What we know:
By secondary structure, this protein is an alpha+beta fold. It is 52% helix and 16% strand. The chain has a domain at 23-44 and 80-134. The longest helix is centred in the middle third of the chain and has 25 residues, at 81-105. The radius of gyration is 20 Å and the shape is extended.
Amino acid sequence: MDISDLTEEQRAEITLVKDGLRISKVVATRAVKTKNGDFFVGFSGAWDTTQEDAGGMGADLIDAMAPGEQHDAIVQRDMTLKQAKIAGFILGMQVDIQALGHTLGGGAISERDHQVATQAIKRNYGKLIAGAVAGKASKTVDNGDE
């Protein structure tokens, strides 16, 4: 069974869930494996949100709010799926660049390779970010080869 086998009502339910999905955190990790060693970087980005867990940061602020305000403070600050995709690309670009910095710092790649790869990463993510903002998929990416 796949999506084309579903009824229109079932597909509408998927759309409803997708459109209502809210994301509060984006995580990006990269591992660069070279003959001179492996380099790992992980970044986690939290959207402008208030933690709802007891004892977490902001818990005292939430406890002081009226029930309706608590819900708004927790729920309305999350990202839409589109925003999360954009945030994922932004964070992904930063973690890719940082991972390359680690490989350069560790002597696994040359300064020139680092520059070429960094430029390609910025160019590719720029296209992906622009496409995500416009609601279109990017069709071309550059691997940095000259």
